[in-house]
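Key idea: predict the complex, not the pieces.
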Amino acid sequence: MRDLGVCYYPEQWDKVLWKQDAERMAEAGLSWVRIGEFSWSRLEPEAGNLHWDWLDDAIECLGSAGLKIILGTPTATPPRWMLDKYPDMLAVDEQGNKRKFGSRRHYCFSHEGYRDESKRIADLMGRRYGTNPHIAAWQIDNEYGCHDTILSYSDAARKAFQIWLKQRYIHIEALNEAWGNVFWSMDYEEFGQIDLPNLTVTEPNPAHCLAFRRFSSDQVVSYNQAQAQILRRHSQAPLIHNYMGRITEFDHYAVGKDLDIASWDSYPIGFLSDRLEAEPEHKKRFLRQGDPDFQAFHHDLYRTVGKGRWWVMEQQPGPVNWAPYNPAPLPGMVRLWSWEAFAHGAQTVCYFRWRQAPFAQEQMHSGLLRPDGEAAQGLYEACQVAKELDDLQKKQSLAPIQAQKNKVALLFDYVSQWAWDIQPQGADFDYFRLTFEAYKALRQLGLSIDIVPPDADLSDYALILAPGLLTLDDVKHETIKGTSLYGPRSGLKTKDLSIALPLGPNLADLECKVVMSESLPSSADQELSVGGAITGWLEHLETDAPVHIATKEGHPIMVGKEGQYYLAGWPDEQGWQAILSELCQQAGLAVTAMPQGVRQCQNQGLRFLFNYNDHPVSFDGITLPAAGVHWQS
Amino acid sequence: MRDLGVCYYPEQWDKVLWKQDAERMAEAGLSWVRIGEFSWSRLEPEAGNLHWDWLDDAIECLGSAGLKIILGTPTATPPRWMLDKYPDMLAVDEQGNKRKFGSRRHYCFSHEGYRDESKRIADLMGRRYGTNPHIAAWQIDNEYGCHDTILSYSDAARKAFQIWLKQRYIHIEALNEAWGNVFWSMDYEEFGQIDLPNLTVTEPNPAHCLAFRRFSSDQVVSYNQAQAQILRRHSQAPLIHNYMGRITEFDHYAVGKDLDIASWDSYPIGFLSDRLEAEPEHKKRFLRQGDPDFQAFHHDLYRTVGKGRWWVMEQQPGPVNWAPYNPAPLPGMVRLWSWEAFAHGAQTVCYFRWRQAPFAQEQMHSGLLRPDGEAAQGLYEACQVAKELDDLQKKQSLAPIQAQKNKVALLFDYVSQWAWDIQPQGADFDYFRLTFEAYKALRQLGLSIDIVPPDADLSDYALILAPGLLTLDDVKHETIKGTSLYGPRSGLKTKDLSIALPLGPNLADLECKVVMSESLPSSADQELSVGGAITGWLEHLETDAPVHIATKEGHPIMVGKEGQYYLAGWPDEQGWQAILSELCQQAGLAVTAMPQGVRQCQNQGLRFLFNYNDHPVSFDGITLPAAGVHWQS
Amino acid sequence: MRDLGVCYYPEQWDKVLWKQDAERMAEAGLSWVRIGEFSWSRLEPEAGNLHWDWLDDAIECLGSAGLKIILGTPTATPPRWMLDKYPDMLAVDEQGNKRKFGSRRHYCFSHEGYRDESKRIADLMGRRYGTNPHIAAWQIDNEYGCHDTILSYSDAARKAFQIWLKQRYIHIEALNEAWGNVFWSMDYEEFGQIDLPNLTVTEPNPAHCLAFRRFSSDQVVSYNQAQAQILRRHSQAPLIHNYMGRITEFDHYAVGKDLDIASWDSYPIGFLSDRLEAEPEHKKRFLRQGDPDFQAFHHDLYRTVGKGRWWVMEQQPGPVNWAPYNPAPLPGMVRLWSWEAFAHGAQTVCYFRWRQAPFAQEQMHSGLLRPDGEAAQGLYEACQVAKELDDLQKKQSLAPIQAQKNKVALLFDYVSQWAWDIQPQGADFDYFRLTFEAYKALRQLGLSIDIVPPDADLSDYALILAPGLLTLDDVKHETIKGTSLYGPRSGLKTKDLSIALPLGPNLADLECKVVMSESLPSSADQELSVGGAITGWLEHLETDAPVHIATKEGHPIMVGKEGQYYLAGWPDEQGWQAILSELCQQAGLAVTAMPQGVRQCQNQGLRFLFNYNDHPVSFDGITLPAAGVHWQS
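Result:
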């Protein structure tokens, strides 16, 4: 069963509006309402003085209208009095400045006092509402990592980091050895000497940085886990966190293990403007529609993070306030985005937010309603989706996508992101971009993809792509039956970010060493003989494996045999098409050259088509209007 | 009577030069000399030890040569010993760093100790020179706001801000309500918890920011007022401050209320290079002349700030030292700039400075004399202006411009600048630029303009433009008899920077709501059917008023009736011409399409023409040489 | 005798590798090995506990293989325990942040405690190895100034600066007068009031800044001198420091006076990408070769710094890790770079480093060996150079270049760099770039050049260029017999960075004053009548000297007579060619128009030709392959 919901803030509105709002939500076909996640100052206006009444009433009012409630723990917004208790709870930025009260996410994950407060409020909420029949799910905190809040250079973080290091390396000599601290006399005599890797004279040891990144991610995991454990004591309802787009500073797979459902906040137009490298022409073309693959990438990623159960917790309903430019969606796009989520297996899509707030930071962020309570464009489209969902589900059940694995796997690894952030070697090297371009290339061939962690069981996949992996140590090669492609820059390092010896990638069946890597400006692209080019990153191989693709100058780019291949450079869009066409043929995968801006997704017998263009497109006998969605058996 | 003057620093020169300098000034036709404003360390070399002798002598020497003296209080440059007394008097930047001694303006407006010192030195100077016959005017401090000195994040500022907030909101609940602090649990329990809005995790509450901006402006007003009140006790001479160009961090109208004359420091070439957004082609064209409208805008603005009495206190005489590039003015431009000021009603134009200092920060800033005392180009042109002024005033008196109001009013509001600085919503949105482009469009049509505050009496104006006003609450609609145009983005918010409800602009006679605003990159310009385009900002209206101008796609842009119009987007240059042509016709204003780089100004029967081009232009039967000025009855 | 060497880190490798490494070095034809300069934490793992054994063994092992050893003092990398002893020894950046432990160069030159520690370790090493027969040279510290480490805003620096000022100015009144502190009331009452010139409200007094720059340079000189004096007590071996490319924050001539040999670290590809202003087309053309003049400039500079004895201590052998992009050298370039050094008189060229380290900051920096110990491209080319050197020296001795002075002198002055850094007046003005462009223009005419300090004996030179000198006070005009060209911006200021009076340049035989200077954007280039243009900087002269070159508009650019000329602007490439052609003719110097990317160097009867292009070039009857080197008698 797929359904819709909305985010709502009863504490922000006069109580007289609640009932009417609840009824309008239900009428619109919404089933879920998320509340509470920023309400701490109203739940506990002064330390220890709890005000449950309003929340009791709100839950009753919404629940009575037939809505299922997702109740959020409010730990992303500690009240002002918390700082009187813990003046040192604030995170510290890389420059050493305290990140002050006055917005949100003003806490350091390593601060024990604040952890205790978070557990306390979760416990109080769990006790009060854990068995409330209207509470159908819980959200813990909100958008971990938003506003660059994973890395903190506070005293609390430093002390916790030292303990973490001691647990990982046991002896300081082991750490010195693993990090290569002999280089530049960086040896430590004891763990208590190790500072956080900011404000050093020149770049700190990459091993030091990677340890700090692993530690910082682990802090998020344990912070989240602590609330999860408490809520489970009081409630059977599923636990959710709402992740964000292209936040890579913590390991989402690891956080996801402690939760029941993954959800994410999908703002296609804001992301296009703010979080995507793309040519100006591309950004102009999709200005009011968002990138055709960015949402799908996250849908496919969070499906895995949620072990098959995933939602969109916040769906953009109109212009937002936080991107450099904030245009309105092309009419029809709110519907399209919703359907793209369902096509990828989403259980629920919630819109953010019900009524636009006329005050504070997000006053220019639209809602389904205007600030004056009139319906905005988003509401009309949400109603349409609700109706269409209803019609479709009458005809056919849409099982969760996890029941049906796709045939293509793309490995995505947070640690690799951190490693290449720390040591890009070339100014443009970015792991997410590399992976996303591979994903986009697959989508341009009409394929449906699973995004999986490096240690996934790969036995069901006909084609496996593993670009840019720090190490291949965790890859379950023994499960692989399909065609696999590694590289560029896969398996060349150790987990402590040293160069692997013997030189990588050290694939069992492929004699191949990367003996030198070059980073190149875009002016030095290397053309491929099959069309397209290598751009930005080029490796030199020592191999006796057959060369399948080379540059026009004869530099080997794709080598391998028997279904195992290595890619020695970063292909451009055309290069990816040439490479993937060859691989798909080998893997026995049928491909479809999708028209520009049109995408498809297969889901249990249904084929969905999406037109991200602002003009109609005819394809495969179907004419898709601008922002059009089409599904067929 | 219009006249000329110069800025002079007797303390910087050997006393033997004073007499000769004074005589040369008088010979050159200069009537005024400004002195003293940076001389504190020589007036009071150690705390409490006053050295008046040299200043007594300098005043006597200059006065004896027939020069009228403007005496400056030296509070922009506290001596080094002041810091021993008040180590916490320094302003603090947004990053939390103290802004140290070693240049100028090193004080926080909120520091009580420094305020007392400022009053003390003003009192001492007032007592000594208040009735000196040579002291014909006073300047208080120097260039408030220069070097980004209005906003300070010091402890003194924080404490003063809390007091200010308490005075404004009385109860903390009222503040929480007005700011919408329920959003993100930002509620306060008491005023003492409220910090300054810097270094927050993500953007602070815009209401918090706007309050801080209002407070910071008020601190300047009260700081200036304190000195003004003291000087008035001792002297009948008029009080002046010298404002700068495009400094918008404090409310100049409010400061101006406590003074008798407004003056400003006009550096056309430096401003073009450093303070003006413009196409490279425009900057190249006017490299040695300055923008044709930038000075005029400030002349028209400061005429209002000075309630009709205004000066140029510092006129650029040659290359300066502080812009990215510092070319020499085209020969004739120093004369042109001087005359443009007089055409706009200036009483006095003073050149900065007499002799170029060979030392310290401004050694590469030219003067009327070279560092070796020889005449520089500026002196020749100043002499010519003196002579021309004399000739003209023999024929005709030039009454102050305030006697004759112009027919066009442009509303300019400092609070709106702060509001949109805080919440631009689109990366390019800038209030000054919006207003300045409207002004430039009016000038291109040959119109003479008054720039007035939002609460001005508008009864004399045939055409009133009010773009970008935060609120319309203070606009005296009842005084309006002419044609008025509001928007874009006018009247959509409250004074606490929330969205106005009902949705704005809430014009009495115009049914029109802005229901959605879009910010757009320049690649998404919307062409108008009348020519030109909307660029960067586009509003969606709910209105039944007639649509006068729309985009080619039919999106309403200018709507209204009976002389009251709303503009739902930011027009480009051609768009403004189309809009204004239509409005002027309605308003019964004759317009003249001015040739590129040529401007005119009407003043009491005289029509002045200015050629900002570096080549001659023939216009209206007159041939203006490069940098040419022409006047006729 | 010219020879080769390599940098080696025995402490980074298992002891079993040492012998084999030493033998391979010797086999490759390398004579020298540099060790020890980053090994402090292994020499003294805890304070006072010295571990000499491993170093004893390493020296014995390398020496036994016939290698001469350069032993480095490890003071660029103080161990972690040093900070427990001296928490305040860290440098402080301009923003006031401590520059923390975790990389290298984490010390403030002004910290007395750390100076003592540096002397202590130098003394200990000198005592132990001063007479060891394998120790054939010493390196003190490593790359002074790398990572922006000359300027420190620490308390230690402030206190030392005050003492330095007192020694220089004796009386505070003298300092106030020299700096022009009367301007903006910046007068001091005592030296203890003078802070470092960072974090001021607007720019600090340029005289204050220049004093701080002179002081900071002096601190490097005295720091280095202290170690030099100690090592001389224990050893007869020559003392060396390895300077970097385009580091100008300290006076290398002054440091060089205390040492026996100058050396520098030459990374042509990294420098092209990271430290050279050039058109994208130029950077693309020489992407894998480096700029054709950048290395030569430093060779000619450091030859003077070393009083004729100079080395390349670190020669790039393959891709590096630290530039924005890190391509591999074109095959042959390692050889070419080595020969260019010898052609300019280098005694020894050492490659950095022997084996690529698989760990820590520089793991992506290639060596002569790959991380797995196999030979990399660099090793093959080093072997070839060794063989060629051997062959050539069998035929002919290559005496040190200082025996034969070149005929062209270019004056290069560190103080001028500081002065124009402080007061560029135009956004693009950079002293190094000005000087380097003059040097490049001379090389394009096939000339061999000496780069000398302003106070050099100039009697041997037929042509002397002195662009951009702060003052001409130290120039030994009396020694000049050849043709000399001063300017632009030469001799216009005093040593305290005030404008010189009478106005400069104050050349004895040339009546010429610069009465105004203009800085211009590139859009305002002034074309010369002889071809080319003046770009960025234009001076106005008062002179009765003959005008040799003028702009098309008649503005005098090169004036002078009887072999003494002044240049009143910054020429572009074509402009320099026109100017130099005329001067060389006067000076009786034959010139050769070199093809693009081809350079020559004369050295004691040998003429070397270098082809920096990636394609063959025929020139003067010789066909040079890509990356080709040619020499002939």
